[in-house]
Amino acid sequence: MKIRGLTKKIFVYFLIVIILSLSSVGIFSYMTSSGELAEMVENQMNQIVGNAVHHTDLYLKDYERSIVSLLTNRQVMEFVDLKADREEYDYYIARKTIRELSVDPLFIRNPKLSSVYVISDELNAIYYYNGVGEQSFNAEDKRKQREYFLANTAADGKLSILNHTIIEGQENQMLTLVRRFRGFTSPELSGILAIEMRSADLSALWKGIDLGKYGYLFIIDNKGRYIYHPNGEKVGSDVPKAFVEKMEKAGTSSFIDSSEGDERMYVSRKSDYSDWQLVVSMPLRELRKPLMNIRSTTLIVGLFTLMLAILLAYRFGKSITKPIQVLKSGMRETEKGNWATIPLPPHKDEIVELMVRYNLMVKRLSEAVDRVVQVEISNSEIRMERQKAEYQSLQLQINPHFMYNTLETIVCYATIQESEEISEIVKALAYMLRYSVQTNLEEITVANELKHVLYYIVVLKHRIGRDFEIDVAIKPEYLLHVMVRLTLQPLVENVFQHAFPDGLEDYHFVRIDGGVVDGIFWISVEDNGSGMTEAKLTQLQAKLNANRLADTETDEAGKKGGIGVLNVHRRIQMVYGESYGLRIESVAEQGTKMIMVMPASPKQSDKPSGE
């Protein structure tokens, strides 16, 4: 049937479009909302269980620190060294001293601890209790306790978390954090230290987690037993095998199970620290309620919108023909680039609003052109600030392991003897710290960098236990040339970390040289150490060519590698440009040569660096 009249055509066409649009939008909205809601619920449960794992690990780590404070206590270590035939007075004094100096403060800081006890290989044992009845044990009891802990703890002294207790009547209600440790006079692990806490206290960590009326969390250990469950009767019992299989198969995804009486959704996460599996559970009927609400709301809103759209389409069709030519003329002017507004009629309706919006659009487009220029200028400034922040952050990426090891050396010297070496180390370390923490200098003289390396060698000779000299072949006329600060010492440190894996020998050498060739200033660090294979050298050069900041990586042995060499290369590029940086030459079993390439800049006066 042929429809005459623009108004009728618009009404009919709009009616068809509205019905089709509402139908398709309603159907797809419902399907999309359902899928997104299910995904949101799963993500929420993943986040909840992830947070629970995180807080539980922090809770256990806090208690692990309490164990460490006791392990390093001299009285505890001396108690482990007591012989089996020790005097009762010695036992009394040790027990009293440990309680007053270590255990009582520990109970004050951690009121949720139930007990602390130490058992030595000689079956000397001391027990301390907090809020539970004290118990005594004979020699056979102590022997059985020691054998149990030896069979269920790591031989290297790492912390173990057990669903175990020595307190009578508290079975399956306690968690024991236990580890082996050595005495004061022997390097052998000859003692066992354990602390016990109530597993129900873990629920206090999750009070802020909203799982609704019927949702809850529970914990499964690596042997497939409940460590914590809101239903206390299940604690200590075995988890159904079918449930464990579903949980392992699902991994970090959700799964459905009805072993607890009704259909429930579960999401689990394994703690790398405690080796526990934390599981969050919610009933499916609660999860599906929002989907039912969405379906009902979609139908109601769809019908209401359809009726309203028909009415608006009818009124719109009757009033659209007159002002359409005005809009058409205005659009033609816009096509020509003339940002001119159109005149508005005296009456008010949808078309007039459209014309108002058109005028507003023209005005905003005109303003947007001006804003684009300002945004580009602002973005340019932001990029410069980011580059500057990136450079300063690179200066702060100093590998802390060297400083930690040095402090350990100082502690050893201080314990063994009073010597001038300690003073020498501290002075060198203080200079290096002052030199390292300055972030306002990008360039420094070669002389200052060599001085920083000199203090590093002073500290290093005490760490390795022997003197070692570096051959500095740089000519005096190059000492006042400028270079990027904190780039020479990381390369020297890299030599001692990687070039001499079997230790320093008399024939080993490290040579620092420099010069100017064709306007290029270069400084090299060369050694005759183990060198690198072609594959490793190619891999390192590929990383240098990537011109990216270095992230800490893990090597084949599982150790985290340094970032010094890559960041030296990047820092030079950020100061002088990407045509400069670090060049590496290496031959396996013959040595390595690292060359810093920089522009030859005018000499500057020697400035003090933090002294």
Automatic annotation (TrEMBL):
Gene3D superfamilies: 6.10.340.10, Histidine kinase-like ATPase, C-terminal domain (3.30.565.10), PAS domain (3.30.450.20). It is found in: Cell membrane. Residues 318-370 form the HAMP domain. It is a multi-pass membrane protein. InterPro entries: Bact_2-comp_sensor_kinase, dCache_1, HAMP_dom, HATPase_C_sf, HATPase_dom, Sig_transdc_His_kin_internal. Its main location: membrane. Keywords: Cell membrane, Kinase, Membrane, Phosphoprotein, Transferase, Transmembrane, Transmembrane helix. This is HAMP domain-containing protein. It comes from Paenibacillus plantarum.
